[in-house]
Amino acid sequence: MSPEISRAAVSADLLRRLAGFFDFLRARHLDVGVGSQVDLARALDHVSVLDRDRFRDACRSTLAKSPADLSILDDAFEVYWSTTPVVETGATPRPRAPTSRPPADGGLESISTPPIPTGTTVPIGIRMGVYSPDAPGGGHTLPALDPRRLAAMRIGARTLRRAIATLPGRTSRSARRGRIDLRRTMRRAGRTSGELLDLRRARNRRALAELLVLWDVSGSMRDHDAVLAAVVYNLRRLVRRTRVFAFSTEVREVSAVLSGMPYRISLDALARALGPAGGGTRIGRCLRDFRREFGRLVHPWTTVVVLSDGWDLGDTDLLGREVAWFHEKAHRVVWVNPYAREARFRPETAGMQNALPHIDLFLAPSDFETSSESRLANR
Amino acid sequence: MAVSKILGSVDAVHAAMAAQNYVADRGLATAVFLAAKLGKPLLVEGEPGCGKTEIAKVLAAATGGELIRLQCYEGLDASAALYEWNYAKQLLTIRLHEKERAPKDLESEVFDERFLLRRPLLKALTADGPVPPVLLIDEVDRADEEFEGLLLEVLSEYQVTIPEIGTIKATAIPFVVITSNRTRELSDALKRRCLYAYLGFPSLEKEVAILRKKVPGLEDGFARDIAAFVQRVRGEEDLVRRPGIAETLDWAAALLALGERGVTRELVEQTLGFLVKDAQDLKALPPARLDALLGTP
Question: CB–CB of A102 and B192 under 8 A?
């Protein structure tokens, strides 16, 4: 604990209990930094710990940084600062998955997270649904791709970024309309002895994109996991505004494990986050769940990238409707099918047939490699 | 009333917000009180239209401080948020004095505070009114991640470093409210510097209280009917955009303007656009489903 805390007007006994509370929270995967500890200790100069509700509110304000943190903190607070002694069961404290939707008013009453069996690996990111009868055991293995192939795919990902860019970047170009470009205006004034005869204008180039990647990680895609993981990794690295969601019979966000980490470390983290490989795919249902939960992320400037073979064991009409919704709301819908470049490939599955009319760009993972750069750009 | 008294206790904050017709729960009042006491920014996340921006407005009105608003957007940079040199004024000054002054003297003269255009962040730091201003950094999730880096010095040290001038420190620490709709995760560095509050959808009782406060002339029973219907609409899982409090208030005001005193199916059909603002959601609520939501046969 920070030495600054000792300066707060809190007793030694309370300090010990607070330190224990921070450890208790960390064991539940709520990382409480020293800054937050100091904030809480300073807050206790103004809020009495004897007022339980105010004390909890102070903890919520200073220690939590997201709705998921709030739900962990509320539970932990009830257990740790309970007036009745806590019964030790001997089991290690289990983290809880964040609820799919934050509680109304940040309160505790609307939290309905199902219990997680002991020993279950809790994936990183947001999970929707915990149990699925269609999801058999067996984990994801994500072998690393050859570095040269990975680098080649990065060029393809960059080409795609250029093709779908909707947002202004940092570099500007001359334009008839737009903001006054003082730098160019001054430079032009140099030709006329410093007289400002010609106002130059500029606009920012469209260079940035926003991506929502929906990655099918069901059993039928297992053979393509490695190459698709490379596609996802490159897209996440090159397009900063990218959120990645994996689905098979449920949707979960895995963006966090792809942030700012080297390729091999990201693969390990990704394999852990993906958990068991699902057998039955419910693409339509998963897209519907995604729309309900994250539909607000789809904007006219967002490109939705679906990585899937289109084998839907559920309602294929639903898949068509959902892809149509994305087509209507988003800038582009890109579908990456691992079989798209195979000579004998025909989009004959009902799911793929329903989705195809609403897809703007139909690609194969190989299109991302350098040799296919021109093909990707021309599509 | 002095600011220290208005923000002097959780109850005082609660009362001050209530006096400005803002229905705050105990948790939010505690967060506001602690943010004021600890001199830290308050990061408010939550559903759109649930009163995040309103917190800053209410605090400015309650304390009498100036409300300085920075609306964030894609591409927002230092020249729009922090400061910019007044190039035109600099150029004119150079042209006026180029014959009588040496270029080096002129250069040091034009990079002076007089030639600085203060944008919201710098304006909040250098405000010299009797009451510290309230700085609202609205929808920070719309700005680039790089912009968050720009905020770090301002929010942790309450100072700005301008290479040509030096460091400008805040004359009085402003009350900073940062709002986010969670369209993307904010950086840990920014979150660490802030206290946190989450505003979700209100409970029925709270929504009725808000309606009574914000829509004058609304009877209690009618307010309850409106709030109950909105709560049921929010409960529909397949809606993309659930109505926030702002939509409820708009709808209630519209119903009142129409001279209505009760919620009927026909009325809901005619005015549903005030409440549900997505074409797909409107399609998803046909008359039969509205009947079910209203509890009518």
Answer: no
